[in-house]
């Protein structure tokens, strides 16, 4: 508990005396001195704008004598040309309407330079409501203007950096697109008695994809095709893709047996990437041999999703290749081959797992093999290009659910067109 009759400490008495002296000194300041030497500018004008009173602070900023200003100059003459125009068209009319205007940024003609200020004015009225004069306060805004200018420079620098980054990204994307195209055939060749279609979806324009496909002649009677997916993205994946494509082409020309071609690719990849940076891929390689109105297909798979066949009667079925291993992981790998015949109206579809692993629906479920087979079966058997077009629209509908590159290659035998029967028209 604090007792009121306790004696004060000696140090406390000195502190109280010093505080009292400070307050006494402050109270000795006259109102006139506070007005004249305030840290801001004060002035009063008649209703027509003629300056009637101005403090020393503002006179010092202007570099003028009181006799030059009071009763001789309107307030607007203290402003720069732009400020004067704004005062006449906006400031003065608004003040007349509202009786008060606050925090308007203007420039005054200070001694030898422009000086940014913030101006607040208020109309003093008589007891009868008649306007008598205008009181104005002017604050130095040089530091604020410098800060705003610095912010503006920073914003402009950031905007320029953003534009430069967008331009750099655009150039990078253009270069990546060109490089990506170099890993794919510019166009598929024309094969007598066979139709082909392809599509490539890039999940990100900022990354090189690892999906690939090709179709090329082995000799006058046979054609080779392949489609695959290299693990990873970016320049390293692109290097593996390039090596894989040229290895498959070279191996096929030496010995086109599908299992032998994939075995050769496995050896090349395993020997090339054995120093800790393991690289591998999945692929289907096959040979087409057109015979009369059908095409014999012999293919082999290494860890790749099975090819899908759309038959002319509307049935869709997978050409199963179970047991095929990833290519490049082990020095010795097992690959599974399969054979089939494509009849008129049949289409063989090869695809990468970006299609079947797309996420769909509110639960983001995998699209899956069964859904792809059902979708294919629901399409009219109108040939490879029609199927590719339908699948392209399907992929576009996945939106953000398709987060991996996707390659499609469709090969088929054109359906035999029915012969039109014409009925003779009798002349009357």
Protein described:
The chain has 10 helices and 17 strands. The strands form 4 sheets. It has a 5-stranded antiparallel sheet with strand order 2-1-5-4-3, with helices on both faces. β3 and β4 form a beta hairpin. α7 packs across α8. The termini are far apart.
Provide the spatial order of strands within the biggest beta sheet: 2-1-5-4-3
Helix content: 25-40%
Q: How big is the Rg?
A: 43 Å
Strand content: 25-35%
Q: Number of DSSP helices?
A: 10
Strand and helix layout:
Layout: H1 10-27, H2 31-36, E1 41-45, E2 51-54, H3 56-62, H4 66-69, H5 81-98, E3 100-110, E4 113-125, E5 131-140, H6 142-182, E6 195-201, E7 211-217, E8 223-230, H7 235-254, H8 258-272, E9 281-291, E10 294-302, E11 307-310, E12 316-319, E13 336-342, E14 347-351, E15 359-360, E16 365-366, H9 368-378, H10 384-398, E17 406-412
Antiparallel strand pairs: 1-2, 1-5, 3-4, 4-5, 6-17, 7-8, 8-9, 9-10, 10-13, 11-12, 11-14, 14-17, 15-16
Helix pairs in contact: 7-8
Concise synopsis of the structure shown:
The protein is α+β, with helices and mostly antiparallel strands. Helix content is 36%, strand content 27%.
List keywords for this structure.
alpha+beta, 428 residues, disordered C terminus, five-stranded antiparallel sheet
């Amino acid at each position: 508990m604090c007792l009121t009759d306790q004696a004060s400490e000696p140090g406390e008495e000195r502190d109280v005396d010093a505080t009292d002296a400070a307050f006494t000194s402050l109270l000795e300041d006259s109102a006139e001195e506070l007005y004249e030497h305030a840290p801001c500018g004060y002035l009063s004008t008649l209703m027509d704008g003629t300056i009637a009173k101005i403090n020393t602070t503002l006179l010092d900023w202007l570099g003028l004598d009181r006799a030059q200003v009071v009763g001789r100059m309107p307030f607007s003459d203290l402003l720069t040309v732009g400020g004067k125009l704004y005062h006449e068209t906006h400031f003065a009319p608004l003040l007349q309407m509202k009786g008060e205007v606050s925090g308007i940024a203007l420039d005054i003609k200070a001694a030898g330079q422009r000086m940014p200020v913030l101006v607040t004015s208020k109309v003093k009225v008589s007891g009868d409501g008649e306007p008598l004069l205008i009181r104005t306060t002017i604050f130095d805004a040089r530091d604020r203007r410098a800060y705003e200018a610095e912010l503006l420079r920073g914003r402009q620098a950031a905007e320029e950096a953003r534009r430069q980054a967008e331009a750099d990204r655009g150039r990078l994307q253009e270069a990546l697109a060109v490089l990506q195209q170099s890993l794919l055939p510019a166009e598929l060749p024309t094969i007598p008695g066979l139709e082909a279609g392809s599509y490539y979806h890039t999940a990100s324009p900022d990354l090189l994809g690892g999906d690939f496909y090709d179709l090329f002649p082995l000799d006058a009677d046979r054609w080779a095709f392949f489609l695959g997916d290299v693990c990873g993205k970016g320049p390293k994946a692109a290097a593996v893709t390039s090596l894989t494509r040229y290895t498959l082409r070279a191996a096929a020309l030496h010995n086109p047996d599908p299992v032998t071609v994939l075995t050769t690719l496995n050896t090349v990849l395993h020997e090339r990437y054995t120093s800790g940076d393991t690289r591998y891929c999945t692929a289907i390689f096959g040979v087409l041999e057109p015979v009369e109105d059908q095409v014999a297909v012999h293919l082999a798979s290494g860890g790749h999703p099975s090819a899908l066949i759309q038959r002319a009667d509307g049935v869709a079925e997978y050409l199963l290749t179970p047991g095929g291993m990833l290519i490049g992981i082990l020095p010795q790998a097992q690959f599974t081959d399969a054979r089939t015949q494509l009849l008129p109206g049949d289409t063989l579809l090869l695809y990468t797992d970006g299609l079947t692993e797309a996420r769909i629906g509110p639960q983001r479920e995998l699209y899956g093999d069964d859904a792809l087979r059902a979708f294919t079966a629901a399409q009219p058997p109108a040939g490879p290009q029609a199927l590719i077009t339908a699948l392209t629209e399907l992929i576009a509908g996945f939106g953000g659910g398709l987060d991996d590159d996707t390659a499609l290659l469709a090969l088929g035998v054109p359906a035999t067109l029915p012969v039109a029967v014409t009925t003779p028209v009798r002349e009357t």
